């Protein structure tokens, strides 16, 4: 038997080798994955015989992405105290109102109800003020068949004896009114005339009982037409309240943008951005109620005479630090003056300094005048910490 020629043997070897290579390439290579998914690791495939013959094929390294654990929900912290084997829930301490606390009666519609909630939160830590909510959400000055506010307010004043009355009303009054048995359209001439009379009658109840009054204006609303009508009603309220000697509080800017248009979100009493209004464009959130009350706090304390810093030492002629100073005395070298009060103790709105009549008349130039007029600083008084002047040693006598 003759051997095949060398060319035929090489051809047969190449065919067998090609078939073997094709068979090996058809078999999938096993891949080893790391079981630790907390850190991304590179996947390294096994090397086959083909890799040894023809070299390792370069592949892009596959990286396992870490699996992020879902965030855990934090449970609200509860203050608890263990008493033996049982757990007792501790409630935050509440400040009790004094028996002689001044009562502030808040009346009106659903906006007045929100205002009362905000004022309650505002004076929560003040034992000298108590908020009485007397609002009716569906009421107004148009539908007297639902609620006659002058008569109702008279009864509430006789029952509660408030020190101050706060009114907020008008959001339900954009409707026709019955005048002398005839239906009048909203904002018609007859409607305006009758509505002004009802405002005066409402205010007259507080005037007759000699009780201070705060009338709170309406804020902007999501509806442009409702906002326009609210602005018109605010003008009526302001003119009538100020004519009767009451206080009108305008809160419009706190719930509108720089153009006076409605905003749903804005800054709260701490300057933080929050949601102020509800999704209906009418109601107020908790932050919105608190912000509305913020506009009234100062006037409420002024009108009720409830001084927030009651323990502050008041300065008068008997306890001034500088003694022996009379209005007629003259000082040529000014170094100190009598202190002034940080507050207005009498709550009378006076802008005069406390005991300004005791401040002596001066003929010299104060350090302030010297700095402003000449741009110079006066020498430090002898012995003060900033007195850096060298003193000449006195020569001994003789």
Order of helices and strands: HEEHEEEHEHEEEHEHEEEHEEH
Biggest beta-sheet profile = 5 strands, parallel
Mean pLDDT: 79
Biggest sheet, strands in spatial order? 6-5-7-10-11
Uncertain parts: 32-41, 309-313, 322-328
| Rg result | 42 Å
In the CATH hierarchy, the third-tier topology of the domain at 102-304 is known as Rossmann fold
Shape: flat
Residue share in β-strands: 5-15%
CATH superfamily of the domain at 102-304: SGNH hydrolase
Q: Fraction of residues in helices?
A: 25-40%
So how many helices?
8
What is the end-to-end distance?
152 Å
Sheet/helix structural class: alpha/beta
CATH architecture of the domain at 102-304: 3-Layer(aba) Sandwich
What is the CATH level 1 assignment of the domain at 102-304? Answer: Alpha Beta
What is the strand tally? Answer: 15
Structural features:
single chain, alpha/beta, two-stranded antiparallel ribbon, flat, DUF459
Overview of this structure, please?
The chain is an alpha/beta fold and 398 residues long. Among the domains are: 102-304, SGNH hydrolase (Rossmann fold); 312-383, no CATH class. Helices cover 30% and strands 13% of the residues. It is built from eight helices and 15 strands. The strands form six sheets. Strands 6-5-7-10-11 form a five-stranded parallel sheet, sandwiched between helices. The longest helix is centred in the N-terminal third of the chain and has 21 residues, at 6-26. Mean pLDDT is 79; it is low at 32-41, 309-313 and 322-328. Pfam families: DUF459. This is DUF459 domain-containing protein. GO terms for molecular function: hydrolase activity, acting on ester bonds.
């Amino acid at each position: 038997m003759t051997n095949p020629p060398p060319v035929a043997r090489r051809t047969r070897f190449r065919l067998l080798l090609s078939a073997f290579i094709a068979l090996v390439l058809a078999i999938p290579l096993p891949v080893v994955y790391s079981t630790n998914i907390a850190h991304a690791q590179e996947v390294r495939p096994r090397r086959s015989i083909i890799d040894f013959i023809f070299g390792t094929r370069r592949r892009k390294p596959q990286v396992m992405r870490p699996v992020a654990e879902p965030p855990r929900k934090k449970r609200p912290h509860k203050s608890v105290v263990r008493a033996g084997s049982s757990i007792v829930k501790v409630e935050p301490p509440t400040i009790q109102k004094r028996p002689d606390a001044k009562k502030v009666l808040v009346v009106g519609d659903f906006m007045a109800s929100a205002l009362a909630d905000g004022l309650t939160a505002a004076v929560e830590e003040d034992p000298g003020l108590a908020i009485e909510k007397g609002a009716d959400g569906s009421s107004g000055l148009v539908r007297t068949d639902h609620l006659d506010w002058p008569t109702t307010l008279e009864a509430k004043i006789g029952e509660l004896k408030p020190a101050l009355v706060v009114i907020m009303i008008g959001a339900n009054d954009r409707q026709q009114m019955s005048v002398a048995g005839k239906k009048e359209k909203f904002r018609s001439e007859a409607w305006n005339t009758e509505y002004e009379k009802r405002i005066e009658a409402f205010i007259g109840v507080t005037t007759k009982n000699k009780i201070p009054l705060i009338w709170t204006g309406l804020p902007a609303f999501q509806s442009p037409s409702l906002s326009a009508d609210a602005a018109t009603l605010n003008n009526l309220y302001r003119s009538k309240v100020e004519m009767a000697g009451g206080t009108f509080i305008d809160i419009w800017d706190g719930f509108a943008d720089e153009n006076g248009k409605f905003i749903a979100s804005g800054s709260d009493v701490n300057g933080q951005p929050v949601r102020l209004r509800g999704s209906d464009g009418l109601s107020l959130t908790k932050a919105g109620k608190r912000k509305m009350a913020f506009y009234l706090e100062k006037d409420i304390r002024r009108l009720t005479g409830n001084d927030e810093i009651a323990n502050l030492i008041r300065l008068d002629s008997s306890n001034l630090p500088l003694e022996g100073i009379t209005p007629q005395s003259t000082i040529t070298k000014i170094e100190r003056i009598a202190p002034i009060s940080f507050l207005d103790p009498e709550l009378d709105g006076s802008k005069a300094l406390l005991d300004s009549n005791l401040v002596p008349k001066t003929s010299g130039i104060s350090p302030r005048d010297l700095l402003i007029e000449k741009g110079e600083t006066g020498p430090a008084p002898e012995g003060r910490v900033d007195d850096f002047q060298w003193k000449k040693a006195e020569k001994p006598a003789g």
